[in-house]
Each structure stands twice: as structure tokens, then as C-alpha cells.
Specification:
The structure holds two protein chains of two kinds. Chain A has 13 helices and two strands; from the N terminus they run H-H-H-H-H-H-E-E-H-H-H-H-H-H-H. Chain A is an all-alpha fold. Chain A has a domain at 27-241. Chain A has a two-stranded antiparallel ribbon with strand order 1-2. In chain A, a hairpin with a 2-residue loop joins strand 1 (146-149) and strand 2 (152-155). The longest helix of chain A is centred in the last third of the chain and has 27 residues, at 206-232. The two termini of chain A are 26 Å apart. Helix content of chain B is 33%, strand content 26%. The longest helix of chain B is centred in the C-terminal third of the chain and has 14 residues, at 166-179. The chains are: A mainly alpha, B alpha/beta. At the A-B interface, helix 8 of A face helix 2 and helix 3 of B.
């Protein structure tokens, strides 16, 4: 019964997302594309934060690594988007494996600071290694790749086509994450979040569990970074800055870290607010800040998390 | 099965266990008795490796496991139910069991989750209840059940009846005796009457040193030991 209802929900969501390019103006298609990209980034971060209990302040490092590797591939290697995507995902996954191997030895604030430090090291590489990364100017000037879809050659320069491309990649990433979260391994991650000492008593190695989650999160952050760089036609050092990591944390808290789709809802709220507010004031940061503070105070489990809690209470027939 | 040889465990600089040796043979239930603070839990934590011994050795089936990581020892067959039960409060009863499943051991009948429900019928009705919403007794049953789905070679129980109602303690005793044909049990207990009613042998620990060793009947009748080392 439950899975039947879930299937219906998925179908509805898919139909809505697929019909969007035919209903909305290009400006909103592009905003939605950005929301999808950041949703995948935020959900991959939440595999670490919400499910495993590790607050990483360095996810932007993997996001940016993916972006730079994809652009470098397009500039110096292949012109295929698939090769660029694979390079970005594998490269950021590998960097996550190395950094994660060191970071998962600690948790809580120590883990946060370690990831912050490594993230900023990656930022510094992107910012200072001018000959390879273009320094603070970023790395652009690549020709936007084309995709061969059943014999029809489509250019990703078209916002609608790029939207569908992003949609497919994000759906794949989301499917992978939901498979992980709902597997016995996902249960182990949740158990590890509750108490990392207890987990050893059921014969699980908490470090390998965390490292696996860290690599998956890093690789998916890298995939999001590839899409982000394609979307903006540039990979820039800001993509790796800790403030970008902070943005993802904010989105996740805003939507709800305890719910699978919470980070995606947070990303949507964040971007829609940002675009609405910037349209009538240049001091948008102040207003965005005020609204975000209010949302966090009003919805302690995140917007989606709190709504689902309330819905659950209504269904059980409790008073609000 | 389990052999502990002269282990010394420290908390920082304080020398808590000063050479504890004990042995649990197969098909045997052995208890470790002592007052609060005598070193029972420290012995258990030392064996499991949460606070590993600085000197001395721990053998499981003749293999030295002293230095192995905690999760390794559990996988090697040493199940441990800690003092405060430590079930996963946010997971359901079913999920608490699912996360703990380890492959079966050769020559032993497997503890599947279904078999757990047959042996702990009380857990069936609680299947979808969150671990944190169970009573103390239910949590204790779940903690033991969770240890069993790991298909261990032996079971270490640290103060299982602490804080439980007498009826539940009686129930728990039946469960422990029922395990005897399956695997040996080492039971650390303050409640000497309970522990000796289910055990074959017992050790008495005080101030980090084993003071006495004897059969359950011997210990039950030895009033001198009881009054000196146990608050009976």
C-alpha cells in the first residue's frame, strides 16, 4: 500500500518536472535547472549530515573539483559531455576518498573543522594555480558540448535541452541516494549517527561506513559541480569556497535534514526567495537573511520536515 | 571458549583491573559477581576492547584477540550486551535487529530474525515500535536478541537485570538458561541471587582483583564470601 502510494507520488513529481519546460518562460526554466543541480548537491550532503551525522564544511571542495575537472576535460581532452561528467565524478570521488580517509577518524566539531580545512586547501589550489585553473578568473571558454540522443544531436546550449539533461542526471543521482538510504547499509548509517560507539557492538566498522558515505557524497557533489559549471559556462574558485559549503548546509536545514527530499525543498525555497527578492532590492541579503531566520525558527525540523510531522499528527487524529 | 589471562586495565593513570584472569568453557554459564565499582564492567569492556587492557591477553577459541578492534571481536563471535542496553532508540525493533545481522557460523543453527521472534514472542507485537519507546525490560530483551542475530560464539552480558522489575528478571533468567545449549555466557552481575540461579560457576571480583572462584552451589552457601565481597 505504502509503496503503491510512493510510486504514485514519484510519478506525479516526474510528470510535473518533465512538463515544466513547456509551461514556464526560459528565465524560470533556468532557475529550476539551478534548483535541480543544487538539490542533488544538498541531498548528497545530507547523506553525510542527516543520515550519518557528520557535518562537513568542505563539500564545496568536491563540488568545485567536479566542475574544474569537467571543464579541463572539455578544454584539453574530449569534447564529450559524458567523458567530462565521468572525469568530474571519478575525480571528486577519488579526492573524497583521500580526504575522507583522514577525516572520518574524528567526528563532531573536529570533523567539521578538518573538512573545512581540506575544502579550503582545494579552494586555494583552484585560486592560485593560475596556469591550470585560470586563477580568480575561473576556467571557461569551452565549447558547450552536444549530446547524441537516439541519433539526434542536441546542443546543451539550449536551456530546455540542458534542463532535461540535468533532470535525468539529478534523477539518477537521487535514485542512487534513495537506494542507499533505504538499504540495510542506510540503516547502519542511521545507527552510526545515533551512536558511533554502539555501532561497533553489532560488528560494524564505523570508519569504513563513514568513509563510504563520504565518497558517495563527494562523487555526487562532483556530479552536481559538473552540471553547475556547464550551466554557468565556467568553473570558478567560488565554487570551492567554504561559504558555498555553508549555502548547502543552510538549504538542508531549511528544508529538513531528517527527510529525504528536505534538502531539495530547501534549495527550491532558497533560490525562489533569492530571485524574487533580488528583483526589487539590491540589499537582498538582509531580507533573505531575515526570512531564513524566521523560517528556521518557525520550522525547527525544516520546512518539509515540520510539514510532514504536522501531517502525521493530523492523520493520527491528534490535536495540533 | 573464552580465556582471559592476567589483564590490567587502566582509566587514564588509575590502575583499575590489577590482573584479572578467568575462563568460560563451552556450554557453560559463568557469572562475575561484585559490588558496584568492583571492576565488573571494566572487565567486560576490557575483554570487548572498548577500554583494552594494557597488559595481559584475551583468547577466543585459542586465538589471541586482545588487540583486535571492537567490531572485529564482535564479528569473530564475541557478542556483547552493554550495561545500559544501548539499543538504537531511533530505529524500530525490526530495524534494530536488521542492522545487527551477521552471517551464520558453520555447524551452528542460524539465528534468523524469524527465529528471534519465535524465541522472543514479546518482540513480535513491538516490531514497528521505535527502540526508544520500549520499556526497560523490552529493551533488554531486544538488546539480547540483537546480540543473537549476529550469530555469536558466546555472549557477554553486563548487568542485564539492573533496573528491571522482578517479574522481568525472572523472564530474563529463563532466556539466559535457554541459551545454555547454544552458547556459553559470561554474566556480570551485582544481583548474586539472580546470577547464581542461572550460572554453573562464578568469580567474585573486588577492587579490580578476583577474590574467589567456585561453583554456583559453593558460592550460594559460602556466607563468608558473600558478606565480605557481595552486598547480600
Amino acid at each position: 500500500m505504502r509503496s503503491y502510494k510512493n510510486l504514485f507520488l514519484w510519478f506525479f513529481l516526474l510528470a510535473a518536472l518533465a512538463s515544466v519546460p513547456f509551461l514556464l518562460p526560459v528565465y524560470w526554466i533556468m532557475i529550476l535547472t539551478e534548483i535541480l543541480v543544487m538539490s542533488m548537491f544538498a541531498m548528497s550532503f545530507n547523506l553525510l549530515f542527516g543520515y550519518t551525522g557528520l557535518l562537513s564544511f568542505g563539500q564545496a571542495g568536491f563540488f568545485g573539483t567536479g566542475g574544474y575537472l569537467a571543464v579541463l576535460t572539455l578544454l584539453h581532452g574530449s569534447t564529450s559531455i559524458w567523458v567530462a561528467l565521468v572525469a568530474g565524478v571519478l575525480g571528486s570521488g577519488l579526492i573524497a576518498l583521500i580526504i575522507g580517509w583522514l577525516c572520518v577518524r574524528r567526528d563532531e566539531i573536529y570533523f567539521a573543522i578538518l573538512t573545512l580545512g581540506f575544502g579550503m586547501m582545494l579552494f586555494t589550489i583552484a585560486h592560485n594555480w593560475r596556469s591550470v585553473t585560470g586563477g580568480s578568473d575561473g576556467l571557461g571558454n569551452f565549447s558547450v558540448p552536444e549530446v547524441d540522443f537516439l541519433g539526434v544531436v542536441l546542443t546543451l546550449a539550449d536551456p530546455k535541452i540542458f534542463y532535461f539533461f540535468v533532470l535525468i542526471i539529478v534523477l539518477l543521482g537521487t535514485w542512487l541516494l534513495s537506494r542507499i538510504v533505504n538499504s540495510p547499509f542506510g540503516l547502519l548509517l542511521k545507527a552510526a549517527r545515533e551512536n558511533s560507539n554502539r555501532i561497533a557492538f553489532i560488528g560494524a566498522n564505523v570508519r569504513s561506513l563513514r568513509l563510504f558515505a563520504f565518497v558517495i557524497a563527494g562523487a555526487l557533489a562532483g556530479a552536481s559541480g559538473v552540471l553547475f559549471a556547464m550551466f554557468n559556462r565556467i568553473a570558478s574558485p567560488e565554487m570551492l569556497h567554504w561559504s558555498f559549503s555553508g549555502k548547502v548546509i543552510l538549504m538542508t536545514l531549511l528544508g529538513g535534514s531528517g527527510v529525504f527530499f528536505g534538502p531539495a525543498v530547501g534549495a527550491a525555497i532558497f533560490f525562489v526567495l533569492e530571485h524574487i527578492i533580488t528583483s526589487f532590492t539590491t540589499n537582498w541579503m538582509i531580507f533573505l537573511g531575515i526570512i531564513l531566520v524566521l523560517l528556521v525558527l518557525l520550522f525547527p525540523s525544516g520546512v518539509l520536515g515540520s510539514l510532514l510531522e504536522t501531517w502525521g499528527r493530523i492523520r493520527k487524529g491528534h490535536k495540533l | 571458549m573464552l580465556k582471559v589471562e592476567d589483564i590490567h586495565v587502566y582509566y587514564g593513570d588509575s590502575h583499575v583491573l590489577q590482573g584479572v584472569s578467568l575462563e568460560v568453557k563451552s556450554k557453560e554459564i559463568v557469572c562475575l559477581l561484585g559490588r558496584n565499582g568492583a571492576g565488573k564492567s571494566t572487565t567486560m569492556l576490557g575483554i570487548v576492547g572498548v577500554n583494552p587492557p594494557r597488559f595481559g591477553k584475551v583468547f577466543l577459541n585459542g586465538i589471541d584477540i586482545t588487540k583486535a578492534a571492537v567490531y572485529r571481536k564482535i564479528r569473530d563471535g564475541l557478542a556483547f550486551v552493554p550495561e545500559d542496553r544501548r539499543i538504537f532508540a531511533g530505529l524500530t525493533v525490526q530495524e534494530n535487529l536488521e542492522v545487527a545481522v551477521l552471517p551464520p557460523r558453520e555447524g551452528k543453527r542460524q539465528w534468523t530474525i524469524d527465529r528471534i521472534y519465535e524465541n522472543f514472542p514479546l518482540l513480535i507485537a513491538l516490531k514497528n515500535r521505535k527502540g526508544g519507546n520500549l520499556s526497560g525490560g523490552e529493551q533488554q530483551m531486544l538488546a539480547i536478541a540483537r546480540a543473537l542475530v549476529g550469530n555469536p560464539l558466546m555472549l557477554l552480558l553486563d548487568e542485564p537485570c539492573e533496573g528491571l522489575a522482578p517479574v522481568i528478571v525472572e523472564e530474563l533468567g529463563k532466556v539466559i538458561i535457554g541459551l545454555k545449549s547454544e552458547m556459553p555466557v559470561l554474566l556480570a552481575e551485582q544481583n548474586a541471587h539472580f546470577a547464581l540461579s542461572v550460572s554453573d560457576r562464578g568469580y567474585v571480583i573486588d577492587k579490580g582483583v578476583i577474590r574467589y572462584e567456585g561453583t554456583a552451589d559453593d558460592l550460594l552457601t559460602n556466607t563468608e564470601i558473600q558478606s565480605r565481597y557481595l552486598s547480600v
